[in-house]
Design a protein that fits this description.
The protein is an all-alpha fold. It folds into 2 domains: 81 residues, no CATH class; 30 residues. Helices cover 89% and strands 0% of the residues. It is built from 4 helices and no strands. Helix 2 runs antiparallel to helix 3.
């Protein structure tokens, strides 16, 4: 999970969503109060669940470690095959706009000639 969260694409998307969320809460007080209540509820449920799940996680720890190692190797290969994962969202959007723009220009030139 940490390896996925640290991918440039994922972390930049998380930052964008977090900024939009904070901005929305600040700009719209009613939405902000609903979000605050939801956050408190999630925190309470998470805390209650953590104490119940901890014994199970301790038992499963060796299996989780093996799956984690296997997943990490798979993610490493995926990162090699998809360098896009190491780009921030803004750069991907800019690259896509440039690609679409160049294709439109190419199509326009082809039609004109």
């Amino acid at each position: 999970v940490n390896q996925v969260a640290n991918l440039t694409l994922v972390s930049s998307a998380r930052d964008m969503v977090s900024t939009a969320y904070a901005s929305t809460k600040e700009s719209h007080p009613y939405i902000g109060s609903v979000c605050d209540a939801a956050e408190k509820g999630v925190k309470s449920v998470t805390e209650a669940t953590a104490s119940c799940v901890q014994p199970v996680l301790t038992t499963l720890e060796p299996h989780v470690a093996a799956v984690s190692e296997y997943a990490s190797k798979g993610l490493d290969k995926l990162e090699e095959k998809l360098p896009l994962l190491q780009k921030p969202v803004g750069q991907i959007i800019l690259d896509t706009k440039e690609l679409v723009s160049s294709r439109v220009v190419d199509a326009k030139d082809a039609v004109s000639s």
